[in-house]
């Protein structure tokens, strides 16, 4: 794995680039947790399958590059061979600007990059594959992503403000408070979130709390000590431990303890 830091002008939008090269001599199956983010994989090695167990139509098969929109449940990936590529995790409103389409069109879906408008990601993937090394690939990403953002209209500042407050609160601010501060009805706020973020604000808030709990449990488990799940639940804004377990079941497909033991 090779980590790349985007140009300073891009860091408000893109946290990092993750370059990878991985060999799997036998089929490698992974369970991927849900999240209120967009996954962009641009690869040029062994193809993979992305499967949502709820519906085969939501996944994609035999692709090396794909975009996965915001998901409200876990999915699986399967590959065999040597995979190489770059992974980006994008905040929804950044992805909306880069991709040039409302994220409602990608909710709970993974699609090959060739299916997206303009096929610019397909061309970018080819250029990344031809680049001599990771520094050149990361520099190419800087140029292309900066140009895409410069050419795209900004999102509605009111929606951007609501999203940032939701993130900064760790999913704790209520939908009613957000709507009141904006002067919108709850229904209008939910409609705008579904269209641009891909999920309603209440689900986005649950996923933000889950992501925080997922990271906290991994950090606590890394110490080798027993994890106090009730404390994790309280620190991440859950009403109680049972609500934490419910979200882990829905978003990761396992209890917190089982997920931690599988690492």
TrEMBL record:
Gene3D superfamilies: Homeodomain-like. Residues 160-262 form the HTH araC/xylS-type domain. Transmembrane segments: none annotated. GO terms for molecular function: DNA-binding transcription factor activity; sequence-specific DNA binding. It holds the Pfam family HTH_18. InterPro entries: AraC_XylS_family_regulators, HTH_AraC. Keywords: DNA-binding, Transcription, Transcription regulation. It comes from the Bacteria. PANTHER family: BLL1074 PROTEIN (PTHR46796:SF15), HTH-TYPE TRANSCRIPTIONAL ACTIVATOR RHAS-RELATED (PTHR46796). This is AraC family transcriptional regulator. It comes from Micromonospora ureilytica.
């Amino acid at each position: 794995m090779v980590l790349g830091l985007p140009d300073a002008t891009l860091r408000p939008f893109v946290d990092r680039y993750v370059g990878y090269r991985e060999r799997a001599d036998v089929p490698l199956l992974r369970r991927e947790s849900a999240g209120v983010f967009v996954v962009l994989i641009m690869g040029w090695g062994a193809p993979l399958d992305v499967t949502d167990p709820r519906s085969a139509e939501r996944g994609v098969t035999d692709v090396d590059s794909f975009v996965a929109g915001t998901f409200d449940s876990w999915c699986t990936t399967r590959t065999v061979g040597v995979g190489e590529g770059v992974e980006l995790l994008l905040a929804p409103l950044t992805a909306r600007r880069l991709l040039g389409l409302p994220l409602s069109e990608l909710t709970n879906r993974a699609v090959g990059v060739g299916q997206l408008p303009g096929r610019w990601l397909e061309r970018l993937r080819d250029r990344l594959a031809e680049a001599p090394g990771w520094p050149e690939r990361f520099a190419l990403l800087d140029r292309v992503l900066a140009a895409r953002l410069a050419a795209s209209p900004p999102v509605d500042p009111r929606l951007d403000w609501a999203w940032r407050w939701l993130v900064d609160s760790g999913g704790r601010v209520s939908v009613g408070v957000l709507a009141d501060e904006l002067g919108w009805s709850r229904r209008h706020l939910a409609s705008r979130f579904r269209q641009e973020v891909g999920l309603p604000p209440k689900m986005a808030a649950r996923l933000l709390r889950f992501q925080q709990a997922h990271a906290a449990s991994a950090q606590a488990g890394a110490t080798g000590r027993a994890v106090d799940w009730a404390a994790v639940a309280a620190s991440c804004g859950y009403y109680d431990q049972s609500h934490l377990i419910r979200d882990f079941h829905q978003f990761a497909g396992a209890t917190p303890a089982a997920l931690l033991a599988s690492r």
